[in-house]
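Folds abound. Consider this:
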Amino acid sequence: MDRTEENRQEYKQSQRRVKREVSKAKQKAYDELYTRLDTREGEKDLYRSARQRDRDGKDVQQVRVIKDRDGRVLTSEESVHRRWKEYFEELMNEENERERRVEGVNSVEQKVDKIRKDEVRKALKRIKSGKAVGPDDIPVEVWKCLGEAAVEFLTSLFNRVLESDKMPEEWRRSQTEEFKVEVGLHQGLALSPFLFAMVMDQLLEEVRQECREQVEENLERWRFVLERRGMKVSRSKTEYMCVNEREGSGTVRLQGEEVKKVYLLRCKYLGSTVQSNRECGKEVKKRVRAGWNGWRKVLGVLCGRKISARIKGKVYKTVVRPAMLYGLETVSLRKRQESELEVAELKMLRFSLGVTRLDRIRNEYTRGTAHVGRLGQAAGKEEGQRGGIWM
């Protein structure tokens, strides 16, 4: 094309038309997306989008290093993986001294039936999609798409392994990437916390004494019973705290080694901060920080201008509020601490709805717009569901 002024103007006009069409198509796609996210079917996509935005906002350029047994820093990927392998081999194969309770176990020799096609078919249906591939680099979606052909092939392969007592060497090796542990203890059973509390109450009742000498004697007896069953009492992590302590009350020792003593506002028990003055202000402040951390993770959704207030409130109640209330059903809150939680929550809701205190909007209206009830009511409901034990 000749570079004349006429052609140049025509090119610019065509470029403007293309940009307008692209902008219209993009706006239409965004409108359809936000309309779908405002429905019950689109809620899963909303949470998936929030998680993806949180991952995209993190710095992925991490320096992955680890120290060997001599304290030298390893930087190469191969040496890091080798050290992880050595560590877990030692961790999982080390036998602690313990009392042998099972003797004379008889082995049962019985012919194993062949693997059936219906068993393989059920196993394929139970496997979730989107999982990481193994050494063969074949995702599970491929086997599901192949249908009966995959069932016949896998059944034949598994039976050959079963009959020959040999398996591919690739199956014996696996590699997983390191990941940061970001969650606490998962309770698989609703009764687990209560059973644990009953056992711990009984143990602590036996250990608790009036003088330090009796405490040390019972602590040593506790250590002996645990280590006889193959468990170890960590000397570096074991701590104790005195409530209403008097001056010059001495120390507690375990096997001649002094147990670490923690002071005011510094003791943690099962994830909760315990204070020697029986207050819970430190724990409330920690829960407020946890709420803000959860709010920042879904910031892109909560502050999205085209996302409805109802959806914002629902995301807030399912992501942010549980982080603030976690563990507080076992804490007797005072008015001042309840007010501290309420202030933090209203600040988050105002940020999400795009208003400030200068707009002079009543708190009830802010909560009603986001369909979020008062925090005290939610805490009471949580307590009723879990049957919290109040201190």
Strands lie at 66-67, 73-74, 239-240, 253-254, 257-258, 260-261, 267-269, 272-274.
